[in-house]
Specification:
The protein is an alpha+beta fold. The chain contains 5 helices and 7 strands; from the N terminus they run E-H-E-E-H-E-E-H-H-E-E-H. The protein folds into 2 domains: 67 residues, VC0802-like (2-Layer Sandwich), CATH 3.30.2130.10; 59 residues, ACT domain (Alpha-Beta Plaits, 2-Layer Sandwich). Helix 1 crosses helix 2. The longest helix has 11 residues. The protein is elongated and about 40 Å long.
């Protein structure tokens, strides 16, 4: 099962390369990634299947994993399923109407949606019924 790893990098050239090279050299595939800069730090969420391998690779590169979050990942969707106005809104509405809070969201490779919620099991059931 894929997990989201949270790391913080310096806001300077080469930090993303350092993260990507560490994982790549260890044979760990990045399934999805979301990164923003805030207050001089790069806040990075990395979706990986091989959590132990990713943690070891990042540790070896001096990159501390600050958090690990269980996420739900949609199955790969065709562009027509994902790339249309309102698709994310419909997904978010279904989850919200069930009283579930989305705490993290981003797109991953192969047109997959990654979400962390206050109730991943229920959210996954709801979203599967929409697909």
């Amino acid at each position: 099962m894929a997990k989201d790893l949270l790391v913080t990098l310096e806001d300077k050239p080469g930090e993303g390369a350092r993260l990507g090279e560490a994982l790549g050299n260890a044979g760990v595939n990045i399934e999805g990634l979301c990164a923003v800069v805030d207050a001089g730090k790069g806040i990075v969420h990395v979706l990986v299947e091989d959590v132990a391998g990713a943690r070891a690779a990042l540790d070896g590169a001096g990159i501390k994993v600050e958090g690990e979050t269980d996420v739900i990942v949609s199955p790969p969707m065709s562009e027509t399923d994902v790339d249309k106005p309102g698709q994310f809104g419909a997904m978010a509405r279904a989850v919200a109407d069930a009283g579930i809070n989305i705490t993290l969201g981003y797109m991953a490779s192969r047109n997959r949606v990654v979400l962390a919620t206050s109730d991943n099991a229920r959210a996954q059931q709801l979203l599967q019924s929409m697909m």
